[in-house]
Amino acid sequence: MSAANAIKTPAGIIAVRVPRYLATIRIWESLYALPFCFMGMVLAADGWPGWSVFIWITVALTGVRTLGMAANRFIHRKEDVQNPRTANRHLPKGLLKPWEVFGLMVVGTGVFFYAASQLNGLALALSPVAAAYVVMYSFAKYYTWACHFFLGWALAISPSAAWIAVTGRLDPEAVLLSLVVALWAGGFDVVYGCADIEFDKRFGVNSLPKRFGIATALWTTRVMHTAAAAALLALGFWMDLSFYYFIGWAIAVSLLAMENGLLKADDLSKLRSPLFQYNSVISMVLLLFTVLAVEL
Questions:
Q1: What is the CA radius of gyration of the chain?
Q2: Taking a C-beta distance cutoff of 8 angstroms, is the pair 84, 199 a contact?
Q3: Can you tell me the distance from the alpha carbon of 59 to that of 296, in angstroms, rounded to the nearest whole number?
Q4: What pLDDT was estimated at residue 69?
Q5: What is the C-alpha separation between 100 and 91, in angstroms, rounded?
Q6: What is the Cα–Cα distance from 205 to 226, expressed in whole angstroms?
Q7: CA distance 72 to 139
């Protein structure tokens, strides 16, 4: 049997399709969202919450992230074909069909709802709200230049959701941590909007860089990231965390400052540097030192 025919077997189809599905939802970017989610979990539990809670939180986040990313690709499939930054993705290239990406949305929704049901009543009750938001934010750029802030809050759901999963309630400390994520992630989305500014102008897509210019957009990101760093520092004092947390804070903020320093209004070439590609290192550092602060 030839290699071409082998791919037509069920096992071969799965072997080809699964990597494409994972690439479509950019599974590696979960390394950015997951650490913040686990920070919320560890801080809410003041330590290890138990394997059951950990597993269902992870499954829930995987489900809702699959829903959000697949919805984003499905909703923006026509623009992605025309945008040089996204034209090589699987859906624009025809390697996946729209119905397959829609199927990922359905699967992600089901996984998310079931995982929420295994945690507590409040988590299940709020899960439809979270699911609706991570889908609806994708439409924001058709209506407002503030679309980056909608995306930031989509990612910011995760630490508060983890907090609710552990405690069954939403405490103000969780809201502050979510604010950190919203500012952090929203700021980076503003930066990536700078790379799409010419496309956005041609196709009538809204963004902060398009509305106010690249220089203002980069300064907005710096202000947002400064506010995120300040809120993260305040959280450490508020929760009376040990010095390990503040070591992690200092490392993460230094990396964040370095990233912001790479970009100039007249030179965005560093946007594709490894430092931006592996931005998840920052959130992983924060998680590591948060765990040390709670456990030691």
A1: 20
A2: yes
A3: 28
A4: 85
A5: 9
A6: 27
A7: 9
Which position has the token pair 């560093």? 270
Q: Give the residue with greater pLDDT, 154 vs 84.
A: 154
> Measuring CA to CA, how many Å separate 263 from each of 56, 119, 221, 239?
39, 42, 11, 34
Token code pair at residue 48? 């290890």
CATH class belonging to 16-295: mainly alpha
Side-chain half-sphere CA neighbours of 174 within 13 A: 24
Highest mean pLDDT among 149-158, 227-236, 250-259: 227-236
User: Which tokens is 220 given?
Assistant: 């907005």
Domain ranges of the chain: 16-295
Q: pLDDT tens for residues 131-187? A: 999 999 889 988 999 999 998 999 899 999 999 999 999 999 999 999 999 999 999
Q: How far is the CA of 56 from the CAs of 60, 122, 130, 180, in angstroms?
A: 6, 14, 16, 24
What is the pLDDT averaged over residues 182-205?
A: 88
In total, the chain counts a number of residues equal to 296
